[in-house]
Amino acid sequence: MLDALLFTKTPKLFTSLYPECLWRVDTKEKVLYLTFDDGPIPEVTPFVLDELKKYKAKATFFCIGKNVEENSAIFKRIIKEGHSIGNHTQNHMSGWGHKNKDYFANIEQCKSVLAGHGAPASNLFRPPYGRLTPSQYKNLKLKYRIVMWDVISFDFDLKTRRSSVLKRVLKYGEPGSIIVFHDSLKAKKRMEFALPKVLAHFSAKGFKFEKL
């Protein structure tokens, strides 16, 4: 199976394989949907929240359950400031290479953690790495709104220059785009360079940033 992370702009092949996933929002309005995977962590997530607040921007945070347990105060700040929450598994588990039973249990564990730490009810789920087997997709789509993306920044890639991360998002972002950043240590340097400039660039063009 092809890996969605190989592409900056998600090709139609993936959307046709998993048509009931949310890849982008169908709109002509100047709206972008920023998403942040892998947090919350104290070294990165507060910076993201501070930058979003400067532009009155809302976003969606796909959280790892383990990080929520370890950083409850930051998680509660995400909720308090009006952002939406999604499930990103308890331990950043890839759907590939794991038995369905174990994978689904990991997702449900994260769901319980999110609820136990005050998250509003949500059926948003993003698979780590964008990796799902057909049988996992068939099962999960019955319970969750599986959120993918149409633009990925590659801020997680240690070999990618921070200027390239910025250029990708500026080039491919368009009305309705779901854009992936990461509030993780691996992505920190590149995300912290690109995010403020993305917010400033698109805000100057009249775009709004909304949550899913």
Write the topology of this structure:
Blueprint: H1 12-17, E1 31-37, H2 45-54, E2 60-63, H3 65-70, H4 72-80, E3 84-87, H5 100-116, E4 124-125, H6 134-140, E5 145-146, E6 151-152, H7 162-172, E7 178-182, H8 188-204, E8 208-209
Parallel strand pairs: 1-2, 1-7, 1-8, 2-3, 4-5, 6-7
Helix pairs in contact: 2-8, 7-8
Tally of alpha and pi helices: 8
CATH architecture annotation name? Alpha-Beta Barrel
> What is the fold-level CATH name, i.e. the topology?
TIM Barrel
**C-alpha end-to-end distance:** 28 Å
CATH-defined superfamily: Glycoside hydrolase/deacetylase
Q: What would the principal axes of the Cα set say about the shape? A: globular
> Describe the biggest sheet?
6 strands, parallel
What do the pLDDT scores average to? 94
- The H/E string reads HEHEHHEHEHEEHEHE
Specify the structural class: alpha/beta
CATH class: Alpha Beta
Percentage beta strand:
5-15%
User: What is the number of independent domains?
Assistant: 1
- Number of DSSP strands? 8
**Radius of gyration from the alpha-carbon trace, in angstroms:** 16 Å
Low-confidence parts: none
- The level of helicity is 25-40%
Describe this structure as you would to a colleague:
With 212 residues, the chain is α/β, with parallel strands linked by helices. It has one domain (4-209): Glycoside hydrolase/deacetylase (TIM Barrel, Alpha-Beta Barrel), CATH 3.20.20. The chain is 39% helix and 13% strand. The protein contains 8 helices and 8 strands; from the N terminus they run αβαβααβαβαββαβαβ. The chain has helices spanning 12-17, 45-54, 65-70, 72-80, 100-116, 134-140, 162-172, 188-204; strands spanning 31-37, 60-63, 84-87, 124-125, 145-146, 151-152, 178-182, 208-209. Strands 1, 2, 3, 6, 7 and 8 form a 6-stranded parallel sheet that branches. It has a two-stranded parallel ribbon with strand order 4-5. β4, α6 and β5 (145-146) form a beta-alpha-beta unit. α7 packs parallel to α8. The longest helix is centred in the middle third of the chain and has 17 residues, at 100-116. The mean pLDDT is 94.
